[in-house]
Amino acid sequence: MGIASGIVLFMVIWFMTFLCVLPIRIQTQGEAGTTVPGTHHGSPEQHHLKKKFVITTAIAFVLWAIAATIILSGWITVRDIDYFERMGPRGEETGV
């Protein structure tokens, strides 16, 4: 795995984690009873984005480290998930 693919993998994991963390512990304006005129009742009262960015980064780094270790060590390869054997038989390398 190169540097660019490692960064792309981290960013994909980070955004997926962020979308999972974003709705946690959110209180809407409708629940708080303080709806600002012109906004929806489902708008957040307090979003705590700084805290969620830090939590997301920590979780994403741990998940990225696990994924990078698996990829770099070769514990799981593309051939391991080739259920339809489209890559050909194992051990057969072509010089093309």
SSE inventory with pairings:
Blueprint: H1 3-21, E1 27-28, H2 29-32, E2 44-46, H3 49-73
Antiparallel strand pairs: 1-2
Characterization of this structure:
The protein is mainly α and 96 residues long. It has one domain (3-81). It contains three helices and two strands; from the N terminus they run αβαβα. The chain has helices spanning 3-21, 29-32, 49-73, and strands at residues 27-28, 44-46. Strands 1-2 form a two-stranded antiparallel sheet. Helix 1 (3-21) packs across helix 3 (49-73). The radius of gyration is 22 Å and the shape is elongated. The two termini are 23 Å apart. The model has no long low-confidence stretch (mean pLDDT 86).
Query: Percentage of helical residues?
Result: 40-55%
Shape: elongated
- SSE run: HEHEH
Total count of strands: 2
Strand content: 5-15%
Summarize model confidence as the mean pLDDT.
86
Largest sheet: 2 strands, antiparallel
- End-to-end Cα distance: 23 Å
Number of structurally distinct domains? 1
Uncertain segments are none
With strands numbered from the N-terminus, the spatial order across the biggest sheet is 1-2
Count of separate DSSP helical elements:
3
Structural class: mainly alpha
Rg for CA atoms: 22 Å
